[in-house]
Amino acid sequence: MAVDWTTSIVQAAAFGGAGLCIGFGAIGAAVGEGYTAGLANEGLAQRPEHSGGIVRTMLVGQAIAESAGIFALVIAVLLIFSDVQGLGLISAFTFLGAGLSMGLAAIGSGVGSGLSSAAAAAGIARQPAAQNQLTTNMLIGSAVCQTPAIFGMVVAFMLMFVDFSQAPLSPTWAAVLGAGLSTGLAAIGPGIGNGFPAGEAAAGIARQPETYGDATRTMLIGQTVSQSTAIYGFLISLILLFSSFPETANPAKIAALLGASLAMGFGAIGPGVGEGVAAGYAVRWVCRNPERVALLTRTMLVGQAVSESTGIYSLIVALLLVMVV
Amino acid sequence: MEEFLHAPKWIFTLFGHQVVLNADTIIHTWVVMGLLILFAVVSTRKLAFLPGRFQTIAELIVVAFETLVHDALDGRNRKYFPLILVLFLFLVLSNWMGIVPGLGEPTRDLNTPLSLAIMGFFIAHYAGIQTKGFKGYLSQYVEPMFFMAPLNVISEIAKVVSISFRLYGNIMGGAIIIAVVSDLVFSLLLPPFLNAFFGLFVGTVQAFVFTMLTLVYISVQTK
After folding, report:
1. What tens digit of pLDDT does each residue of B142-190 get?
2. Interface contact flag, A144 B205, Cβ < 8 Å
3. Set of chain B residues whose Cβ sits within 8 Å of the Cβ of A227
4. Cα(B43)–Cα(B39) distance, rounded to whole angstroms?
5. What's the gap in Å between the CA of A251 and the closest CA on chain B?
6. What is the third-level CATH fold of A11-323?
7. ipTM of this complex > 0.95?
């Protein structure tokens, strides 16, 4: 029996992509959940009489941190059971790209959600009366942490189900692989960074429950602004996916497309974490000094804009590489 | 999965240019607008000192957003309050549309968030020119040093990109995960919870985030 090499390679890529997807995707969620359980245990040791609330918050928080891992599981299952008969060689690269996109994107969000739910579990031990505010804040904060993972999933889904068989193989393989890498790598930093303001908000509400409104609003603004670089990664992926590149065997064009995705992907990690730290400190001091919320928010936005500037350099370089070279 | 990739389109020619309209987006946007108008009519039809059911809901929403806008703009510029309130109501209803079988979120189409973001961009910058004068408005671009000007311009444009893609990506991602998981579990047990989380909860949070960021951009420009 003759071996159909193309089909075998595509099948191998689907399996490899599934492995990368759930392999990377499991890292963040597990770290985040472990941290949550750790702080919940600390709280239990101090206030055993409130074990019900602490354990419930821990479990809900872990479930949200887990959802990044579950997105990765869904994409991995879809990859394993996708029908490879009759697919061209380009599908090998789209499957690998899909796995990388979802897997890498889940790392940051899992850790970030874990920071949020850990602080909420510890906060209930400190201030059991504020349980409702803490739970709501944790739900909002860790749901926003999932945004980078959701971007990874959207790109993975597009890579798997958009038809690239008409596109020329030679530069398109670099474009689809790059699309996966760009969103995946870019999501790591903002995912982790989003956890800092969410954690500080939960800790602050536990200290002063009446700052709930200000803390949640500042947290939301800080989190969403620190997601910007993940969104630039998502933008570069969409450009790579949906522009049609003329057929070329020129290695320079291939290197330019891969380089654009790496530039944006790696360039987004630092600003994501840095802006998250800026937002975290702003939220901490909003909780301690709520009268200064306007000044603190403004200073946070300026600081975030400056630490985002390196991410914007990456965006410019990536756009130049895709459009000009 | 088909509905995400090949949305129905109306294509026609106008003055020699081909015009493509996304049929679903337009229909669903009109449904949202109709619902909002209906709510406004019902809640203000019989205004009374002791409010009725709809009037109570409307008063709660209006008062909450009035305080929010008042705090964010330090009590100045009350004229932006209707814009912010309607922006939130439109987005939240749009994001909730997906939980109704057969309907889809207008925000799942990038055109909707992008046009709202561009609208917010022009309003914020017009407000900046109004408050600080044209010279004062321009001088903020040469902060902290004159050679930072190109970077400042790009980061203003990047705000439009980030605010619109954030909403689009979240709503699209939620819709995809609901469709894929429903397909995998044969629509048993899980879909209602997923709809509650991604449709109602994430939809509300993201609508609030979009509205808050538009408000913050206006407040930064008018400070």
Report:
1. 877 777 788 888 888 888 988 999 999 899 888 888 888 888 888 788 8
2. yes
3. 162, 166
4. 6
5. 30
6. Four Helix Bundle (Hemerythrin (Met), subunit A) (1.20.120)
7. no
